[in-house]
């Protein structure tokens, strides 16, 4: 093997979408790993909504900008954002400047807090859909991974009923993958889990 080959590969077989350093880092350290911290659960919900119609790489590239602009995803603060704050965010080139998506982050923060009040935490609410046990899928290739499932349909419907925005079934399935409710690492990936 030539030295160049060693430099190119770290000998880890990954899901085929993990093509850039940023994607690899996200793939290796976050995607499919169970998240139980409410602030992180809120961050991922907002980022998945912001991603609608864009690539996930765009969102990862702007993630630090989002954290700075949205008070490190402090939903208590975001729930109180007013028109002046929306205008300020609309001028911020470090985030996705879409008025509907920005307003949805505020609405979702308000609804997120209501769920916390009802369930004790958002974590308790979202993980109750799977009895606190992640779903480990056994796909051979990315082509087999669905864009949505009956479970993402159900969660999406429930969230919409509660007043959440940008929570369609496809967004929710991506969210389930992001927070580890679903582990969709393919069988050839070094992070694949064989048992359910």
In short:
The chain is mainly α and 196 residues long. The protein has helices at residues 3-8, 21-29, 38-51, 56-69, 75-78, 83-90, 99-119, 122-127, 150-161, 169-178, and strands at residues 135-136, 182-183.
Topology of this structure?
Elements: H1 3-8, H2 21-29, H3 38-51, H4 56-69, H5 75-78, H6 83-90, H7 99-119, H8 122-127, E1 135-136, H9 150-161, H10 169-178, E2 182-183
Parallel strand pairs: 1-2
Helix pairs in contact: 3-4, 3-7, 3-10, 9-10
What would you note in describing this structure?
It is a single chain. This protein is mainly alpha-helical and 196 residues long. It has one domain (17-183): Orthogonal Bundle (Endonuclease III, domain 1). It has ten helices and two strands. The protein has helices at residues 3-8, 21-29, 38-51, 56-69, 75-78, 83-90, 99-119, 122-127, 150-161, 169-178; strands at residues 135-136, 182-183. The protein has a two-stranded parallel sheet. Helix 3 packs antiparallel against helix 7 (99-119) and helix 3 (38-51) crosses helix 10. The longest helix is centred in the middle third of the chain and has 21 residues, at 99-119. It is globular and about 50 Å long. The chain starts with a helix and ends in a 13-residue tail after the last strand. The model is unreliable at 1-8 (pLDDT under 50).
Identify the CATH class: Mainly Alpha
The total strand number stands at 2
> Structural class, judged by helices and strands?
mainly alpha
CATH architecture: Orthogonal Bundle
Q: Which fold name corresponds to the CATH topology?
A: Endonuclease III, domain 1
The whole-angstrom Rg is 18 Å
**Helix fraction?**
40-55%
Taken from the alpha-carbon principal axes, the silhouette is globular
Main β-sheet, spatial strand arrangement: 1-2
Distance, first to last CA: 38 Å
Give the CATH superfamily: Hypothetical protein, domain 2
Strand residue percentage: under 5%
Task: Figure out the total of helices.
Answer: 10
Largest sheet descriptor: 2 strands, parallel
Indicate the mean pLDDT.
Answer: 94
Low-pLDDT windows of residues: 1-8
């Amino acid at each position: 093997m030539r030295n160049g080959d060693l430099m190119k590969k770290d000998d880890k077989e990954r899901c085929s979408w993990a093509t850039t350093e940023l994607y690899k880092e996200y793939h290796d350290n976050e995607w499919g790993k169970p998240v139980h911290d409410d602030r992180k659960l809120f961050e991922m919900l907002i980022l998945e909504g912001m991603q609608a119609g864009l690539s996930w790489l765009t969102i990862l590239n702007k993630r630090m900008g989002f954290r700075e602009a949205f008070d490190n995803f402090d939903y208590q603060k975001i729930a109180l954002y007013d028109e002046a704050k929306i205008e300020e965010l609309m001028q911020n080139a470090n985030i996705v400047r879409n008025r509907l998506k920005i307003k949805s982050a505020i609405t979702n923060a308000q609804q997120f807090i209501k769920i916390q009040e009802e369930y004790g935490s958002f974590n308790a609410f979202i993980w109750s859909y799977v009895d606190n046990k992640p779903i480990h899928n056994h796909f051979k290739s990315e082509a087999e991974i669905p864009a949505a499932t009956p479970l993402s349909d159900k969660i999406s419907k429930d969230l919409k009923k509660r007043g959440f925005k940008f929570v369609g079934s496809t967004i929710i399935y991506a969210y389930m993958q992001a927070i580890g409710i679903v582990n969709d690492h393919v069988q050839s990936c070094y992070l694949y889990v064989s048992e359910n």
